[in-house]
Write a structure and sequence with these properties.
The protein has helices at about 1-25, 210-245, and strands at about 35-45, 55-65, 70-75, 80-85, 90, 100, 105-110, 115, 125, 125-130, 135-140, 145-150, 155-160, 165, 175, 180-185, 195-200, 200. It is of the alpha+beta class.
Length: about 250
């Protein structure tokens, strides 16, 4: 009976974990640049001494991430950018480390620092990008930022910095508790071949219909696992009753 209990218990636990991941994806279906999460689990034999290893438990692992690009939408806003193809925008986290995102809805704060919608400074060639007071800001296809100073003519654009655009292999990146992607090899180098589209944003890559279907299916599986545990308990009680009668 305990083997069946292990199966149902492990199934119920991992159903709950995957439901949490799917629900999180659904909650971010409209979040710019969001990458969907997957829940991972693997079978782990239980060592119970010198006997036969007949018990297997499912061990939950860290979530993996779907790094596929989401659809692009046109906004026309001069500080909105979308990566054209593969690549990432480098940003600075609260603890000073470097993280990566595809969310290109940028803005300039009151101190002139270029930030993402989550308030993280966008990194340039020498650290966070600072933009002086200007009448116009332009971001080139290679991430170069040019400004037209106050009172200057339309032909007086000055390059002030370049957004740090990087490339990374899928296995190098992992999503951390802050919701950002981090590299296992530390800070990545600028990749001059990456291009961006100004006036566009990349939407979430979450498929809302597929995620909702999965949530419903996982809820039914969870109910089935709980019912199995109840049945196992009833069978154990019936077996105990039979043994008491025989004694």
């Amino acid at each position: 009976m305990d083997r069946a209990l292990y199966l149902s218990m492990a199934g119920a636990k991992n159903n709950m974990l995957e439901q949490a991941a799917r629900s999180h994806n659904l909650a971010n279906v409209s979040t710019v640049g969001f990458k969907a999460d997957f829940a991972n689990a693997r079978s782990l034999p239980l060592n119970g001494g010198d006997g036969i290893q007949s018990r297997v438990y499912a061990l939950a692992e860290s979530f993996s991430v779907d790094l596929a690009s989401g659809p692009q939408m046109q906004t026309g806003r001069e500080l909105d950018i979308a990566i054209d193809g593969k690549g990432w925008i480098a940003v600075q986290t609260a603890n000073g480390s470097e993280a990566y995102t595809r969310a290109g809805n940028l803005s300039v704060d009151s101190t002139g620092v270029l930030r993402t919608a989550r308030g993280m400074p966008v990194l340039g060639s020498g650290g966070p990008i600072a933009i002086p007071d200007a009448e116009k800001i332009e971001i080139g296809t290679d991430g170069t930022i040019s400004v037209r100073a106050l009172g200057q003519g339309p032909a007086t654009l000055v390059v002030i910095d370049r957004i740090k655009l990087v490339s990374a292999k899928a296995e190098e990146l992992s999503k951390q508790p802050d919701g950002m992607l981090h590299s296992s090899s530390g800070s990545l180098a600028l990749d001059a071949n990456i291009r961006v589209r100004t006036g566009f944003l990349e939407s979430s890559n979450v498929n809302a219909v597929a995620e909702l279907t999965s949530v419903v299916s996982l809820a039914r599986q969870f109910e089935m696992q709980v019912k199995m545990m109840q049945t196992i308990a009833e069978n154990a009680e019936a077996s105990s009753s039979i043994l008491r009668i025989q004694v």
